[in-house]
Amino acid sequence: MFDIGVNLTSSQFSRDHDEVVARALAAGVNGMLLTGTNLAESQQAQKLASRYSGCWSTAGVHPHDGSSWTPAVAEAIYTLAGEPQVVAIGECGLDFNRNFSTPHEQEVAFSAQLALAAELSMPVFLHCRDAHDRFLTLLKPWLEKIPGAVLHCFTGSRSEVQECLDLGLFIGITGWVCDERRGLELRELLPAIPAERLLLENRCALSAAARPQAETGLAA
């Protein structure tokens, strides 16, 4: 099993990287993609990926950190993307839910990273929350120039997932689908996602652990 969303750079793991990776391997995870959400974390993710067999990383700037995008950061991400462990640009996209960076700052950073991915012929690791229409407007012109794209941690609607699938995106699903209450809509749309386009992610340490429920066989 391959986990496409591991936040191993989280401070919660700062003292036990070896143990976290060992537990994942023992649980049957044979590959992990370590997520970079800003320049410093992208650099750290690459270093961690170089330390552990079966680990790769992304390099990019999350929309929350869109205000940090500068020519210097762009150059550093470009350089980092040349490392063999770095296999995708991101996490990048739009998040209009809390707007830690302004929508304009997010759009500038997102568009620049799409251009970078096209220049380097690298796939993109995408984030979208409460910004579906604008997100696709910016993404669509680049899809023919980018070798692949995954929209991670999908929590949108059936119509939104279908639109993403029609554009050729892969869909990342987290433990959110196991939430008895909040994950109901996501569970119901799972059959609409072809198995070959469905990717799994733990999203540790940002998502709470899940426990199976006897009544449903799901988790909470």
From TrEMBL:
Q: Which UniProt keywords are present, listed alphabetically?
A: Hydrolase, Metal-binding, Nuclease
UniProt keyword Hydrolase, yes or no: yes
* Residue numbers binding a divalent metal cation 2: 127, 152
Documented EC number(s):
3.1.21.-
Molecular function via GO: hydrolase activity, acting on ester bonds; metal ion binding; nuclease activity
Q: Does the keyword Hydrolase apply?
A: yes
Q: Which residues bind a divalent metal cation 1?
A: 91
What parts of the sequence cross the membrane?
Answer: none
Protein's UniProt name: Deoxyribonuclease TatD
Q: Which organism is it from?
A: Klebsiella pneumoniae
Q: Which lineage do the record's taxonomy fields give for this organism? A: Bacteria, Pseudomonadati, Pseudomonadota, Gammaproteobacteria, Enterobacterales
